[in-house]
Amino acid sequence: MNNSEILFLYDAKLTNPNGDIDDENRPRMDYERSINLVSDVRLKRYLRDYFINKELEVYAGQVDGKTVNATKRLENLFEKYDEKINLTKLPEPAKQWMLDQLIDVRLFGATMPIKSEGSKGGSLTYTGPVQFNWGHSLNKVSLVESSSITSHFSSSDANERGSIGKDYRLYYSLIAFHGLISAKRAEHTRLADQDVQLLDEAIVRSIPLQATRSKVGQYPRLYLRVEYNNPEFISGDLRDYLRLEEQEGLRSVAETKVNIDLLVDKLVQVSDQIEKIHIWHDPALELEHKEETKPLTELLPPTLQEKVNSLEGAKV
């Protein structure tokens, strides 16, 4: 396996991309820059739910529809293991079997506190080879001014009328995530190349499929995974090389154009380090390079095009 860097863009129209429970569930914001934020935990939840829908085992999931602690989750998992084991003294073959079952631990890692009656318990820690920084909007965003909603049901038996609540949303946000895949850490969690291919698929497909009432209106627009041939090379945050033609007042993807001149220059600069460029691009998002607007694969110079692996088969 090789190191990779990920650039992922999706947009959110009239939704709340990531509510802040410390701020009445308003969208997470950097108010000084007027950009909204989305935690890596939110993104990983979309991916985990996608894996669950494909009937894959995940560690950070429920047991029989109920939320349980880490010990109960592992006890449930090891019911499928051939031998009876002590969770606080897992032998190496049992640890490897566990990792082979849990796709989210192989990708993102986990800390597993284990309780034990009659002893001090224990813990297992795996640092994930796949890590994302917090996402942020590339454009300046604004909150929908009308936020009050009504409910048919009253908040208490004493009230004869329905209750009134708040529903905070953004008009439009083009959100960008940066991520890394560490080949060295992949050895520790037994991450395989086919797992990374599944990650490619999940990132492109999961968000619209996992929509809830506050998340309807979110769609992937661009996914780029740059795979390197040098195990000690990382290029840096690829979001720094994107420029929006208009940063304020956007309401839809039809009004959005991203200039990628700097991104293409950067990829050309490090092309000797690149093994492959895995690309998925929704043509609804206009990308501009040297005043031309085309699909991303056609905007790249021939030296980069020959390294492209199109992920068009992962259409949502």
UniProtKB/TrEMBL annotation:
Alphabetical list of InterPro entries matching this protein: Cas7_Csh2/Csh2 (IPR006482), CRISPR-assoc_prot_Cas7/Csh2 (IPR013419)
Gene Ontology annotations of biological process type: maintenance of CRISPR repeat elements
Pfam families on file: Cas_Cas7 (PF05107)
NCBIfam families on file: cas_Csh2 (TIGR02590), cas_CT1132 (TIGR01595)
Name of the protein described by the UniProt record: Type I-B CRISPR-associated protein Cas7/Csh2
Organism for this UniProt entry: Salicibibacter kimchii
Gene name for this UniProt entry: cas7b
